[in-house]
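Sample 1 of the test manifest.
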Amino acid sequence: MRDFLPAELVRRRHVINTIQQTYEKYGFVPVETPSIENLSTLLGKYGDEGDQLLFRILHRRDKLARALEKSEVEEKDLGDLGLRYDLTVPLARLVANNSDLPKFFKRYQIQPVWRADRPGKGRFREFLQCDVDITGSKSLLAEAEVCSAVCEVLLKLGFSNFEIHINHRQLLKSLIKASGISIENEGNALVAVDKLDKIGVDGVAKELSQRGISEEQTRNLLTLIQRPCGLDEAGELERLKAGLAADSEALAAIQQLAELSALLKSTPASGHFNIDASLARGLGYYTGPIFEIRSPDFSGSLGGGGRYDGLIGMFKGSEIPAVGFSIGFERLVLVLEEKGLFGQLGCGPEVMICHFADVSDAKVLEAANCLREAGVKVEIYPETPKLGKQIAYAETAGAAFAAIIGATEAKNCTLSLKNLVTGEQQTLPWKEVAAHIKKP
Amino acid sequence: MRDFLPAELVRRRHVINTIQQTYEKYGFVPVETPSIENLSTLLGKYGDEGDQLLFRILHRRDKLARALEKSEVEEKDLGDLGLRYDLTVPLARLVANNSDLPKFFKRYQIQPVWRADRPGKGRFREFLQCDVDITGSKSLLAEAEVCSAVCEVLLKLGFSNFEIHINHRQLLKSLIKASGISIENEGNALVAVDKLDKIGVDGVAKELSQRGISEEQTRNLLTLIQRPCGLDEAGELERLKAGLAADSEALAAIQQLAELSALLKSTPASGHFNIDASLARGLGYYTGPIFEIRSPDFSGSLGGGGRYDGLIGMFKGSEIPAVGFSIGFERLVLVLEEKGLFGQLGCGPEVMICHFADVSDAKVLEAANCLREAGVKVEIYPETPKLGKQIAYAETAGAAFAAIIGATEAKNCTLSLKNLVTGEQQTLPWKEVAAHIKKP
């Protein structure tokens, strides 16, 4: 858990603002959901591992007393609320509960989530998620829009060394089946393949064998999911089609990937995506195309998403299709910092008012008020030590100017404005100070 | 706990932006702290009632198992973390832990806090706090700055029917003593007086008597703290001085209130404050001037604050003086809504692209991309039902324009732009559409 001091917070806000502005250009509207959800909403959506990473809220007073009276107290007796684990499940609950939302609900949501995970590089127990989702349509335009919006965010932030890896959940399932792996072992195979970029081919092979998948099946699967060197996009789609020619569901998935590729070429995502049959995405709820942002500048994913046509139905009864993309905000900030892509982001006052003891504090406030009315960011040094000390403080606070007010300035409603970069100083009426400070 | 849908969220953001911009003009810088704090940081700072309202996080796995092994399990065994209860204690912890902050740290913080309270009008279990604090100075300029900044926020939002009630913790203590109430009963008297605006004079009298304070003492106290009808600011200060002429600490407090009044007349708070010796503020940590925003438009406070010179020392060892003000964000939003002060706040796309089935989706994306590059908020209707249905949807989505693309428009890279207010329609090249939409 981290405190964010001003310099870092200004960088985070720059990223957030870029995300907001970009998503709004795509017609997405903002939503926020509560930090605390019913455990019944959260449990069973993220797999066993996810369930264990939930932060649960302890019952209070009577409820707690009653729970502790039992002879054998269990975790489930001690609370029925938990902290939000992601933004997708709350969205599904919200859409299921609000029947008067637009049919095609394009929402974005930027809020913290909590996971009781071991922290690592770019991994925290409280972290910001930035999600963009479209509910209500099965059109591939929805996939194209979320991928395009995410690419545009990264490019706007000056970061272009990335690719969106795209796969299709159905294609991957078909490849698992074609490898000879039984349907009972499909989940195990998915979990193992999901670790490919972390533990490599040998690691996945080991994990598959531990889960009772034969050497031959493992070899088949690893051959099928990995693109041969030098094969281009069209060639890769042909290779996959050839390997699954008898599987109509697989062919439909490949066709969708081909169409999505064609669409993305007409968007800012052009040149920033590839088809990757080895992409698995951990979460259980995906049903169609899946995405993940990878970059040579970061080991691990910078975000991901996909189509999940069944999740809202878990809350609503009837199905509502949906597709979404989540940016890994904390990792993105890390990468932007490492690559020096933030530039100069200002923070703090533009001018520090320095004053002498023989000037009334009321006069000082009047001067500050006059500058603030003109839109200047003004800090008042709260005490009256020697001028040099006040000016030195103005410099460390990052103010570009010190505005000095002594008896003469107070009488004439002027300020002696000192440029802390050039050292230049001039006396100006209060009303003219703002224009001088704002002048480029 | 509440979901915020776009229309409401846009109003909340408008308030947040106004607060941010105003506070930054005063030279305040932003800070954020984690949602989860150690219980040891939180407990004992908010009084017994506050401690009971903390949301505690349940231990997980081994720690939980060990806790449940005990024969007599207690609340304190089950967790050592809790959700943030306010923003002041986290600030005190942060200032105590970061010795390289500016000497006069002017920070603002806008984040949710959590209290397991009974919900009521404008009261929620998760709610936003907007705090502004200055640490490091005992100067009354600090009090003047936070009061002025808060007033400016309210006025900027179009709300002027409020007054900041100002008292001094030391003055109130001296008045309690002058009433003949023993020092042991001071805390009880403070708690009772704090309820004056909720339960009235009779209610406070009843509560004081229940706490063992005599009828005469009660009468004395209620006479001393209430301003007689028709007495102006200067008269009230004289009345208080006369009643406490032998109490040097009280006279110093009254002198501070007189000086603060004089300062505030030189700020946007002018005409929006009064001295109110009956103001108590519940929290235990105040040591000097205290503030509360009251309005005839809302029963209860719209925010409050004060000087707390001892709190940071509880974390640091050595004392750092501090003063702050917190806006009751949820209540403020409620009042602004009730008074219709939000006006028209836009949300959602400016233009909806409606398209025919014989136009490729790739072409539609190209057109959308061209408009978005020019800064237009564009939603694409994701499917191709009859045009009338698409246009009707554009209207309900609040788009000002529908941009229609059929085979001819696709061929010529044009759009038929329909103004959904006037019904006017014209065909324009993609590049000219943005200018037409943005035209005032």
